[in-house]
Design goal:
- The protein is α/β, with parallel strands linked by helices.
- It has a single domain, classed as Rossmann fold (3-Layer(aba) Sandwich), CATH 3.40.50.720.
- Strand 4, helix 4 and strand 5 form a beta-alpha-beta unit.
Length: 289
């Protein structure tokens, strides 16, 4: 697949945060529908919340969850058109979809997301902490205090706040799935603060899994490698986009639909004996576990 950056945005800076990353403007569009994936009621009658569920990997996860029989709440920050499109895609699969707009970096918003979900669906079984942001800087000294705080608030605080809000409603057999990144293990020369937050996500997953094991609640994570999502053209320049993912063993970037089945697996009974672990859909990059 050949990529081009169909965007007028410049390289991310703390001055213009947060950047809009609209999937419907991408060329080519990410592949999210996984037409080869056949549902088998693995998540029948389950209720899931997916932060950052309006586009990219989050959108694909929402679609496959619905295909497996779940009802879904998708949380998004600003891209109304993408969120509405995802809602329609979920409903096309036969699932009910609650769409909530807000700021996952704020505890009061996270509390409200969970409350509205439980009010509508009567319960909560699955929490997917997927929302995240990143900004590119060649010079480490360009990372401002404002940007550092904001990146940690969105990428790290949100996972704490959402888990705390969800926990009173999660029963034995429920699960939490956090999105980390290959950068948690490999680092990234131009995404230092982002990589640090992903390391925090990984440690949070391992620690919370230990804390909730006796309650029968599993906590795992997915650490994607280079995946073609709106975050890429909204962050990097055209030259980077054209080369994006070519340094993997498979020689190409992955698609959201190639990550989403990992989230289905971790949410289903198929992974009943798995907690405190990470799945690595990254095109063959060798990382420590």
């Amino acid at each position: 697949m050949s990529q081009q950056c169909n965007t007028d945005e410049k390289k991310g800076t703390s001055a213009d945060m947060p950047k809009k990353d609209e999937e419907h403007k991408m060329d080519p569009r990410p592949e999210y529908n996984a037409p080869w994936y056949k549902g088998s009621d693995k998540l029948k009658d389950k209720v899931a919340i997916i932060t950052g569920g309006d586009s990219g990997i989050g959108r694909s996860v929402a679609i496959l969850y619905a295909r497996e029989g779940a009802n879904v709440t998708i949380i998004y920050h600003q891209n109304d058109k993408d969120a509405e499109e995802t809602k329609q895609l979920v409903e096309k699969e036969g699932g009910k979809c609650l769409v909530l707009k807000g700021d996952v970096s704020k505890k009061k918003d996270c509390d409200e997301f969970v409350k509205k979900t439980v009010d509508k669906f009567g319960k909560l079984d699955i929490l997917v902490n997927h929302a995240g942001i990143q900004y590119v800087h060649d010079d480490f000294m360009e990372i401002t205090e404002e940007q550092l705080v904001h990146t940690f608030e969105v990428n790290v605080y949100s996972q704490f706040f959402m888990a705390q809000a969800a926990l009173p409603h999660l029963k034995k057999g429920a699960c939490i799935i956090n999105t980390s990144s290959v950068n948690s293990y490999k680092g990234h020369t131009n995404l230092i603060d982002y990589s640090a937050t992903k390391g925090a996500n990984t440690a949070f997953t391992y620690s919370l899994a230990q804390n909730l094991a006796e309650e029968g609640i599993r906590v795992n994570s997915v650490a994607p490698g280079p995946i073609w999502t709106p975050l890429i053209p909204s962050t990097f320049d055209e030259k980077h986009c054209k080369e994006f993912g070519k340094n993997t063993l498979l020689g190409r970037p992955g698609q959201p639909e190639e990550c989403a089945p990992a989230y289905v697996f971790l949410a289903s009974q198929d992974s009943s004996y798995i907690t405190g672990q990470t799945i690595h859909p990254n095109g063959g990059r060798i990382v420590g576990t």
